[in-house]
Amino acid sequence: MKVILINGRHGGSRAIELGRWSRAFLSLCCLGLPLGLVAAGYLAGLGSEARSAALDSIQEGLDRQSVGLEALQNEAELKLQALTINLAELQARMTRLDALGEHLATMADLGDGEFDFSQPPAVGGPLASDYSVDFSSVDLGSELDSFESRLADREHQLGVLGSLFMNRKLDEQSWLSGQPVAKGWISSGYGWRKDPFTGRRSMHNGIDFASKEGADVLAVAAGVVTWSGRESGYGNMVEVSHGDGVITRYSHNKENLVEPGDLVRKGEPIALVGSTGRSTGSHVHFEVYKHGRSVDPLSYVRRTQR
Predict the structure, then answer these.
(1) Which of 29, 93, 202, 211 sits in a 20 to 30 Å window from 179, CA-based?
(2) pLDDT of 180-229, one tens digit each?
(3) Residue 265 is part of a domain; what is its CATH number?
(4) Residue 188 pairs with which residues in a beta bridge?
(5) Neighbouring residues of 195: CB distance < 8 A, sequence distance ≥ 6
(6) What is the per-residue pLDDT across 64-111, written as a single tens digit (0 to 9) for each?
(7) Which range marks the domain in which residue 280 is found?
(8) Residue 248: beta bridge partners?
(9) pLDDT exceeds cutoff 60 at 10
(10) For 135, how many CA atoms within 13 A lie in the half-sphere containing its CB?
(11) How many domains is the chain built from?
(12) Strand 185-188 vs strand 207-210: parallel, antiparallel, or unpaired?
């Protein structure tokens, strides 16, 4: 095989004789180069597709992780919301317990500052050398449930204690005892005596307590006012019903301070000491009736308070 080379400037030519190996090499170059380029392009395309597939796989994994994280975040937010509501309810119950504790401390006449429910309990101590907390093992939900159970138990116990205190206070209030004036002395006892106006023997159905005019007349037990007004011989009189058929009367008052239907507590002022009606001086005529019959008030006056 001959290859003729022509020189365009000088018009000359030159022939080159190619051997068998030269022709093979030339054919290889002419045909192999395009095929190599095609193969390289094909291989490059395969690599790009593989990279694209790998990137798509990674993106899918990231999307799945993102969805999983979003689900976990939503679940955590729901749990946090539930815990917040639970804590708010527990806080409200703690507030009620604090109020009940203050009330019970007042009812029990505890000293100021002995139980201060507005402050946390006084506790303390050194930190243990082996102190450690494994927060991974702490279940807040179960801890809150346990605390709520203990709180409910304390509420029940304090409620029972409050009822006992209240019953004791009611017993103390309904217990008829003491005298109807803070300061005074018995100027006339219960029973037969000479009438101070006629000099004749007559029955005295009460006890007279001499006291300063205008001083408070006190209820000797809790009850309901059944009469408040002027009564013949008694002057200004207050009558109080204490239940179980027991009635007390306070007469010769300068002024009555209560009206029929009023609820009065033990030791509450219900009138002012005076000398109205058949009276020789400022005093309180104190009577006690049981089931419609007058009894000697002295046994109640000398009673010890509960």
Answers:
(1) 202
(2) 999 999 999 999 988 888 888 889 999 999 999 999 999 999 999 999 99
(3) 2.70.70.10
(4) 208
(5) 201, 202
(6) 888 888 888 888 888 778 777 877 777 777 777 777 677 666 666 665
(7) 185-301
(8) 240, 288
(9) no
(10) 0
(11) 2
(12) antiparallel
Contact status, residue 234 vs residue 285, Cβ threshold 8 Å: yes
Give the residue among 83, 60, 79 at the shortest CA–CA distance from 71: 79
The shares of helix, strand and coil residues in the chain, as percent rounded to the nearest 5, are: 40, 25, 30
**Model pTM?**
0.50
209 inside domain: yes
Token duo for residue 299: 């046994």
In 10 A of CB 284, how many CB atoms?
A: 27
Enumerate the β-bridge partners of residue 99: none
Instruction: State mean pLDDT over 161-168.
Output: 59
Q: What percent of the chain has pLDDT over 70?
A: 61
In a domain, residue 121? The reply is no
Residues 217 and 272 sit within 8 Å (Cβ to Cβ):
yes
Distance CA 256, CA 249 (A): 12
Instruction: Note whether 206 and 297 are within 8 A (CB).
Output: yes
CA distance 214 to 273: 5
d(CA 291, CA 245) in angstroms, rounded, equals 5
Whole-angstrom Cα distance, residue 272 to residue 228?
A: 13
Q: Which of 41, 67, 93 is the last residue of a domain?
A: 67
Give Cα separations from 279 to 51, 63, 234 (angstroms).
120, 103, 8
CA distance 273 to 267: 15
Q: What is the amino acid identity at position 129?
A: S
Q: What is the pLDDT of residue 252?
A: 96
Residue 233 has which token pair? 């011989």
Question: E-strand spans in 92-222?
Answer: 185-188, 191-194, 201-204, 207-210, 216-218
Q: What are phi and psi of 59, to 5 degrees?
A: -65, -40
